[in-house]
From TrEMBL:
Keyword terms: Membrane, Transmembrane, Transmembrane helix
Keyword Nucleotide-binding: no
Subcellular locations according to the entry: Mitochondrion
Species per Swiss-Prot/TrEMBL record: Metschnikowia bicuspidata var. bicuspidata NRRL YB-4993
GO cellular component: mitochondrion
UniProt GO BP: mitochondrial respiratory chain complex IV assembly
Name by which UniProt lists this protein: HIG1 domain-containing protein
Length: 207
């Protein structure tokens, strides 16, 4: 039976919490979309909902996805830790590096890891938001609204591209502060030497 030390518990908790927050983020988007859909597309039925039902529409998808992602994150962590002989040390090393990072570097790393999802979601939200904003105008014709919405979307796209460039520069800056990773063969060699030394200590203790 393997005894889990404190660092492994902290690494497991951090990974599960991160995955739970990711599920909460996705769930909140689904909740907001479902709430807006029911309110705009089915206003008569939505008006009959009491406060409890409306709260469930907002809360249940968020909580459900948060729990699902957290549970899946726990299984993923166990798989990474115990699937191979030296994998667990790599996972713990990554956790130590993450733990020792300043808050600003953590934010940059998170944004960089999920940058394509963030860019795609932001672009889609900007397109939808631009159309909803322009569509409120009762004077402009439909072609004029399309042109205006496209102008807003193009401006937001330029902002997203500039933000991506800044993020790439920040990512390189964060990487420059980190030590160069050890080659895989060096990691395996260090692990074998450590195992051999541990075996020698056990033999000396037994004698």
């Amino acid at each position: 039976m393997k005894i889990i030390d404190r660092e492994e518990k902290e690494a497991h908790a951090a990974h599960v919490m991160a995955e739970g927050f990711r599920g909460m983020f996705y769930g909140s988007i689904i909740s907001a979309g479902l709430f807006a859909y029911l309110k705009t597309r089915h206003p008569a039925r939505f008006a009959k909902f009491n406060t409890s039902i409306k709260a469930c529409v907002l809360i249940m998808p968020t909580i459900s996805l948060a729990a699902f992602y957290a549970d899946d994150g726990s299984l993923e962590f166990d798989k990474k830790m115990y699937s191979a002989g030296h994998t667990n040390k790599q996972v713990l090393e990554q956790y130590r590096e993450w733990k020792n990072m300043p808050a600003s570097d953590r934010i940059v790393t998170l944004l960089s890891t999920h940058k394509y999802k963030i860019i795609l979601a932001s672009w889609a939200a900007s397109m939808y938001g631009s159309w909803k904003l322009v569509n409120r105008d009762k004077i402009m014709t439909a072609p004029q609204k399309l042109v205006q919405a496209r102008m807003y979307a193009q401006a937001i796209t330029v902002v997203l591209l500039l933000a991506t460039m800044v993020l790439a520069m920040k990512e390189e800056e964060v990487k420059s502060h980190q030590p160069a990773p050890l080659p895989e063969w060096r990691r395996v060699l260090i692990d074998r030497e450590a195992a051999a030394m541990e075996s020698q200590r056990e033999e000396v203790t037994a004698e």
